[in-house]
Amino acid sequence: MQVNAVRLSEHVLQVAVPTPTLPPSYETNTYVIHHGSTALLVDAGSEDEAVLQELVDTLKAEGIERVTTLLATHYHRDHTQGLPFFQRAYHAPIHVHRLDQPAVIQQIGFNWDVKPIQSTYDVNGLTVHVDHHPGHTHGHVHIRIPADKVVLVGDHMTGDGSVWIGPPDGHMAPYFDALRAIEHSGCEIAGPGHGKALPNPAEAATALLKRRQQREQEIVQLIAQAPRTLQELVSLLYDGIVPDAALWVARKTVQAHLQHLLSGGAITRKYAAATGQFVYTRSPLSSPTGTV
Ligand SMILES: [Zn+2]
What we know:
Layout: E1 4-7, E2 12-18, E3 27-35, E4 38-42, H1 49-61, E5 66-71, H2 77-80, H3 83-90, E6 94-96, H4 101-108, E7 114-116, E8 120-123, E9 126-132, E10 141-145, E11 150-154, H5 172-183, E12 189-192, H6 201-225, H7 230-238, H8 247-264, E13 267-272, E14 277-282
Helix pairs in contact: 5-6, 6-8, 7-8
The structure holds zinc ion.
């Protein structure tokens, strides 16, 4: 068996599926939300038919015979490339937020039945809510099962790596809002896209929020010391800390912070034609304490 199924709650099963994804993750979670023999399936990151068949067998062993809809938390390939297999297996439509719909079609091809996601689903009497929370991508969603106090958070939290938010898909301000929504969701279990479930979503969301806000403060302070380019900031923050192979992710995250700080007016930037780079400086009107 290559897939590993864990029951999170009465109606939610987490199945870790080996997937080519971003290190240090090597699995993407598929979630099965079911009531009796009827289910919704959330995310499918593998293209390996033998692995996907194991997932079908796992569902059968759980007594699940009917999958009515295939949901994707967002369009990224490591969450969607297995959905066509399940569409063939269960004759179920793929539902994704309309903002991520063109990108999903780009990932899996236009031969599949892909529709805009609904705000609620009724799984044999069990209510499932879909909340649009951009941040990681424009059409990223959280999927809530209030009866079980479970929220599936896609790539906004992780059980094993680190979350990355960066342009062109990612934006910090809505990501912060997404984390605040998790803080206030009343849920007791969060199911991330990668890694183990998180037993205290509110606490984990607060910690993530704090970490990102601290990082933003550090960036403001570095810029207050001297005008900086993106490259300088990435070197100052990550050299020797993050392996070279992961530096592009760090770079995107710094870009997302800079974008957030620019839109809030805490910093400004000028294009330096000589070097072909933007130089970031502290805004003259902003407070000297580094608050944003
Ligand atoms: Zn993703």
